[in-house]
Amino acid sequence: MNFKDIHFTWFYIGAISALLFLSAIVDMQSKGYFKKEGFYCGGVVAMDSSIIKQNMILDSLERAKQEQILQKRGLTSEPEILSLGEELFNGNCKQCHAVHAKVVGPALANVSERRTVKWLIKFIKFPQKTIEKGDKYAVALYKQYQQFMPNHDFMTDEEINAILSFVEHESQYVY
User: Is residue 53 part of a domain?
Assistant: First the structure.
């Protein structure tokens, strides 16, 4: 084989590779991999900077909106409060509760959407008393789980608020 034949062979291989690559791109396009905001390529999404900036602005607006919702409920997303809430949750609640799953007791994700913070503080401090007074929601929980949650009357309202803030913060993440 001479140089010309080798050169032609490599050219031919390159041309076939290019055709296969183009065929793969057409196939990927038909499967929806190429979209306006970017395209999927081996585990990486490529996007232009204007879309990244737009997403950052939207994320910032969403965080501000979430903070307003938390404040209306009497909760916060302050890092030091969330840290305290996580510590207290792990030491007092985690044995029976998780944010996204039932354990011994119910999952707590978005709990402040179901009940007010004032109600939650009262229930967390004195669950049996709340049930015995006939609170419909508390009675329904008792019927579903067939046990009383222990009193947490040793906790301050601020500590329970920190736990609830932590739970609401974690509620936005699905693991």
Answer: no
